[in-house]
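Hi, here's the filled form for the chain we discussed.

Project: internal
Contact: R.S.
Residues: 523
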Amino acid sequence: MKLVKSLLLGSAAGLIAVGGAQAADLPVKAKAVEYVKICSLYGAGFYYIPGTDTCIKLGGYLRAEVALNTNSSFSGQLTSNNGSRNRLTNYYTMRAREDLNIDTRTATEYGVVRTFFDGVFSWTTGNYAGTGSATGTTAYSGTLALNTSGATPALVGSSINGTDGNTSGGSLGVYYAFIQFAGFTMGKAVSQFDAPWTNYPGNNFDSLVGGSGTVTGVNQFTYTADFGQGVTASFSAEDATAYYQAGNLNMTGASATGMIGGSYGSNAIGGSRSPNLVGMVRVDQAWGLFQASVAAHDNHVAYYGATEPTGHPDDKWGWAVQLALSIKNIPTGAGDVINISGVYTDGASRYNFQNLSGGSYSMFGSSGVAYQSVGFAIAPDTVFVTGSSQETVKTWGFRGAYTHNWDPYWNTALYGAYAQAQFGSLAKTTLCGAGGAGGVFGGLAGVTGCNPDFAIGQVGIITRWTPVKNLTFSADLNWTHLDQKYSGTVGYAGAGTTAKPAAVYELKDQDTITLLLRAQRNW
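And the returned structure, exactly as it came back:
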């Protein structure tokens, strides 16, 4: 037995030794693959970044669209070559765009740290500028295009695309880029003044007047307090230079020709001094939403003339107030909604004539009594003349929409907007004289009524079809009306950039219609 036991133990020891030697020659076992895990803390679509406790969500859309009777940005035939309504006017604008947004969130002992980025890659039909004559004005700035003889440029300075660059260039835009932490928002985000639907109470049309709309974000430093039950309040300091300077016009340089072109003098904005100060209170609950917003805007002007000794007017603060209301779950159908807002401004016109709608108009049309008709207007923040103080321009307006869902695949929205600008006594006396019969414009031969006040009215309808989830086709038809207060006729010196000749023009209200057709795939 002892001999057998010794043999068994010896054999076992030998096997262990051999096994150990073989194991030493084998590769080390690989670590388990770390699969991406779903993050359910912040809703659908979030995943943990491998190796971290940060959750990330990617999103965006791809859009293809064509707009009729507009120029580059979807704003109607309102000014310059587009407003001239002749052979220099673009009849359509096409755009292809990819949007990419990145949302990250990390839970900390101070609350959630969030970053958000939204960028767009676009290719857009170019703006047309100039007459395109063989003798020399610019059209679609860029590469020369020769005529059939190859000797003389047929369109001096013409190129494939004047907006987005070279043939394969396009453009990159940054809509939003901000950090949120402990109630603070720091970076480029929608203004706290805006209603949640910004320019779009029910439409795709970009250029509604009647309210603020920083749809591409504005740099800001904001604190938001959350009181629970959907009640929040924010105070914000926001960059005024990008979207909120409608102009501070020195009317000393005003001329009849300039006025017809949509300018009432030289713009004399000074350097940046103060951000816009914004306060907002919002109630967002199941029934809908109510929001009240206020803003203060510093109008800081440079000099009366070209040099410091010419002097300057003092700064003048403007302000704006807006109320917004959304009513959900109305009896007409599931998901139907009414969104409305109203605004009043005094020296802060961009909170009404927002940056995508513009605030300058020079529109030509037909006439039965003159060569053609023209309507023109502008809505700056302030006006002044050399030696005077700034005089604010007051505006008010509203916008709204009703959206009805016919079924899960089709919906239609009716929408509209209205905005009015009112000038003070300094502007009216300078431009129109006492009683509208003098000044820069009112005393001209043929002018029977002179008043720089004006209004813009807009009505539209949009229908959307979503045959499958996240793929939508839409058609948006909009009518814009310029109600200007000038009357009679005027002798206009003409303008080479719009190919308008020197002739007599009728002073008349103007209209424009735009149609936007869009296909969009969200992801």
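Let me know if anything looks off before we file it.
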